[in-house]
Amino acid sequence: MANNVTKAELVDYIAGKTGLTKLEVKAVVEGFLDGIKQAMRQGRRIEIRGFGIFSVKARRARMARNPRTGEKLPLGERFTPHFRPSDEFLAEVDQAIKARATTRSDTLL
Fold first, then answer.
1. Looking at residues 50-66, what average pLDDT do you find?
2. Distance (Å, rounded) from C-alpha 94 to C-alpha 54?
3. Which of 2, 7, 9, 25 yields a CA-CA distance of 20 to 30 A from 16?
4. How far from the centroid of its chain's Cα atoms is residue 5's Cα?
5. CATH fit for domain 45-102, picks 3.40.50.1100, 2.30.29.30, 3.90.550.10, 4.10.520.10
6. What span, in angstroms and rounded, lies between the C-alpha atoms of 78 and 60?
7. Is-contact 84 74, C-beta < 8 A?
């Protein structure tokens, strides 16, 4: 089930679906990802209806433990990217994976 799709494969797929050149699609995909990264670096939330929400979560400071030595170490506050899929997207993925499990058809995208 863990077949990864690369950015290049995604570009090929979108180019085939849209009729745009791979170069044009690559520019759009990179621009899209860049826009998400830029907004998240500013602490902003990106909502794409029917797909999901990209946001930044704050992780509070805490004490961690070195597993080798058992030594306690302070771990500072940090911010991590987070993605929450929409209910529609969750249902679509669930349905597709279940259908794939019964038919066993392997497709790239």
1. 96
2. 20
3. 2
4. 12
5. 4.10.520.10
6. 7
7. no
